[in-house]
Amino acid sequence: MRKERELLRRVMEISGQNLYSCYQCGKCSAGCPSVDFMDFTPREIIRAILDDHEEVLHSQTPWICAACFTCTIRCPNEIDISRIMEALRQIRLRKMHDGIHPSKIPVDELLELPQIALISCFRKMTG
Ligand code: SF4
Ligand code: SF4
């Protein structure tokens, strides 16, 4: 039988963050420089995890998050949201789901991109 709130339990365990302290003020989303490209805003990610909505695992948001820590600094409850994004990526990566497939990057982009950007990308988005 599936454990109650399994997603919430795993995210809190991996991230070390207490999601119950989020009161949905939205300050994280309001300051996020990448929010326009996200399918779930940072605030919505927290809400979905609290509600144990597993579809959040298929969201593009954790892959788009630039780990800039703006949300973390803005949160009045000191929730490190970038760690929560990392936890969601880890859950996917541990299931052998990569966020990017090197073979699908167009060759002209591969030639243009700085090597350090590619290495960072592979470290973050491949298992
Ligand atoms: S800023 Fe903090 S308390 Fe406010 S919605 Fe974001 S995570 Fe929740
Ligand atoms: S760490 Fe990620 S979610 Fe937080 S503000 Fe930066 S890009 Fe947005």
Task: Provide the fold topology.
Elements: H1 6-15, H2 27-31, H3 42-50, H4 61-64, H5 70-74, H6 81-93, H7 107-112, H8 115-125
Helix pairs in contact: 1-6
Question: What this model shows, in words?
Answer:
By secondary structure, the protein is mainly α. The chain has eight helices and no strands. Helix 1 (6-15) crosses helix 6 (81-93). The longest helix has 13 residues, at 81-93. The chain is globular, with a radius of gyration of 15 Å.
- What is the CATH superfamily classification of the largest domain? Alpha-helical ferredoxin
What fold name stands as the CATH topology of the largest domain?
A: Fumarate Reductase Iron-sulfur Protein, Chain B, domain 2
The parts where pLDDT drops under 50 for at least 5 residues are none
The residue-averaged pLDDT reads 91
The CATH architecture designation of the largest domain is: Orthogonal Bundle
Protein traits:
127 residues, 2 domains, 8 helices, binds iron/sulfur cluster
Task: Produce a short descriptive summary.
This protein has 127 residues and is an all-alpha fold. It has helices spanning 6-15, 27-31, 42-50, 61-64, 70-74, 81-93, 107-112, 115-125. The chain has 2 domains: 6-95, Alpha-helical ferredoxin (Fumarate Reductase Iron-sulfur Protein, Chain B, domain 2, Orthogonal Bundle), CATH 1.10.1060.10; 100-127, no CATH class.
